Fold this sequence. Notes:
The complex is a heterodimer of chains A (about 325) and B (about 350).
Chain A: H1 4-31, H2 47-55, E1 62-65, H3 70-75, H4 80-87, E2 111-114, H5 121-134, E3 141-146, H6 153-164, E4 169-175, E5 178-179, E6 182-183, H7 184-187, H8 193-199, E7 203-208, H9 212-227, E8 233-238, H10 259-267, H11 270-279, H12 284-307
Parallel strand pairs in A: 1-2, 1-3, 3-4, 4-8, 7-8
Antiparallel strand pairs in A: 5-6
Helix pairs in contact in A: 1-2, 1-11, 1-12, 2-9, 4-12, 5-6, 11-12
Chain B: E1 6-10, H1 11-25, E2 29-33, H2 41-44, H3 49-53, E3 58-59, H4 65-76, E4 81-86, H5 96-103, H6 106-109, E5 119-124, H7 139-143, E6 149-151, H8 156-168, E7 173-178, E8 185-189, E9 201-204, E10 209-213, H9 216-230, E11 235-239, E12 242-244, H10 248-258, E13 261-268, H11 273-285, E14 294-298, H12 307-310, H13 317-327, H14 334-341
Parallel strand pairs in B: 2-3, 2-4, 4-5, 5-7, 6-7, 10-11, 10-13, 13-14
Antiparallel strand pairs in B: 1-8, 6-12, 9-11
Helix pairs in contact in B: 1-8, 4-5, 9-13, 10-11, 13-14
Amino acid sequence: MNNPLSVNRIESLYRVMLRIRRVEEAIAERYAEQEMRCPVHLSIGQEAVAAGVCAALTQQDGVFSGHRAHAHYLAKGGALEAMLAEIYGKAEGCCKGIGGSMHMIDLAAGFLGAVPIVGATVPLAVGAAWAARLRGENKIITVFFGDGTFEEGVVYESINFAALHRLPVLFVCENNLYACYTRLSVRQPERPIHTVAAACGCKAMTVDGNNALAVFDVASEAVADLRAGSHPVFLECSTYRWREHCGPNSDDDLGYRPKAEVAEWKSACPVNRLATILGAMPEGQTFMENTEREIAEEIAAAFAGALAGGIPQQEDLPGYLYA
Amino acid sequence: MPEVNTRQITQAEAIREALEQAMAEDDRVILIGEGVPDPKGIFGTTSGLQERFGAARVFDMPLAENGMTGICIGAAISGLRPVMVHQRIDFALLCMDQLVNNAAKWHYMFAGQVSVPLVVRVIVGRGWGQGPQHAQSLQALFAHVPGLKVVMPSSGHDAKGMLLAAIRDDNPVIFIEHRWLHGIVDEVPTSPYTVPLDKAAIRRPGKDATVVAFSFMVVEALLAAKALADLGIDLEVIDARTVRPLDMATIIESVRRTGVLIVADTAWKTGGIAGEVVADVAETAFNSLRRSPLRVALPDIPAPTSPHLTKDYYPDALHLARAVVAHLDAAVPDTELVSRLFRSTPHDVPQREFCGPF
């Protein structure tokens, strides 16, 4: 753990996760102001998957996501202020106010798009990987989705084609056990999700999705395999959503998740996990304090910038309909 | 004006030529569909293309219409220009999620940062027992969606020119063919050319009534117009060519001259595009109408299979001529129409020599 590469890795993963956590907390805190007038699906508790996977990718590699996309967007390098401006419905938003929280994009960062139809971006990721292959580009395409998405037929269709053509796709399934309020056991038979992907011709892997270092390691292995021309990789990450399915609050008062289960997953907090490691290292405490301060400053500035943004104009809308 | 070399070829050959020329001029164009490289080559419209352009540009595909549409959209936003083919438009219903939620919106919802240069060829079936799920005419479903372009050329000339235009276009285009148009021969230029994706064409000028026809109904409308001309009724026949956008300017200009609007559609009447044409004319040029508008369309029931049940299902030139005569209160004996337009060939095939199946 003490070699400089590892330390840098731990520090950077910690920074990415803490930044996501603090951004999401700031959104949650300010949501009651009624200025963010769109649904938000917060990633708190699931930061390690985004951080670990994206750390294994290059800027040229592409990422797609779904409705709960903030963590993936930020981890891939998406611009924070453009994301907040989008949630505030401002002209400077990453979709100029047309998309909102569920439609994130930052092409310069390789974040190729997120939309809220469950499963909608899974075939797009396969198509982007197919195009990269046909165009001779050395590019890996990652798509993040949840356990609920795995029930969509289009996911099977996408995996089948990716496996058939050995496309460089990294399917990342964040299994957080719930689709809205419905538990996995009510929706799928008792078998690990990744075994289905294996049977469909993917190289299947599974990892503790709250351990950013472990996620980074398996994702790095997957990425190396994909660059070497392996079968597509399906990575199942077990993790847990802390807040309500949609919105800034906790919904555990509804009683759909066992209290002990919630407590256990919260005790496995991905951010604290790395904080514990860093705390035991020389300079670790100082690093964390500095990081906390820098992130707070960045977030404050980003919110201020986003709120100061311009008003998008309705008359511009028809101009976006056709290229 | 430079001389244009043309020759007589079928519409299926014209479509094949458009694909070949599009692939030759732009190596980003790829072609995929169930049966594209197989020995029958989608009714001949894709024959030989894999041989010419290789297996890295011409693909067969798994029976996964929705997923493959998403995959083609993903390829389209990543720099390729896919052309998908469905042997029946009915199969494209499986793709509606990807077409409506993604293809139609990706450019708009990301404020113009991404475009989806995708062409989806779909073929409307008819006759020889195509039945409830192989003979639907679903243009109105696609045309309802902002962000899609929807075209249905009738002539071989337009099929080639509009397919080339669609492939060069940076937007998703639903290219609707009709199985009964594939075999019709037309004068088609040999070189690549485009026909606009937003312009109707006046096929036959006339002064007594405007008939706006879609796809195969253009063929029937021209037959009806020819017969009625002998009987003193002068129809103007407009080939709509496009469904979204509709070229209402051409239609309204015509209606202002004739004062009568008749729309002949290949689809069901209720909720169809014919109703949209009527509504637009009523809103824009109501005072030009001397009579109420008329829709000639399919009855509001799915196509049956048995030839005994399909006899009067599809309006043909005779049905259309009778409808025109009745609508105009013209004193034309029905026997005059029957003697000119009665179809002696079986009603469920495009030509007598056709011996099935499709």
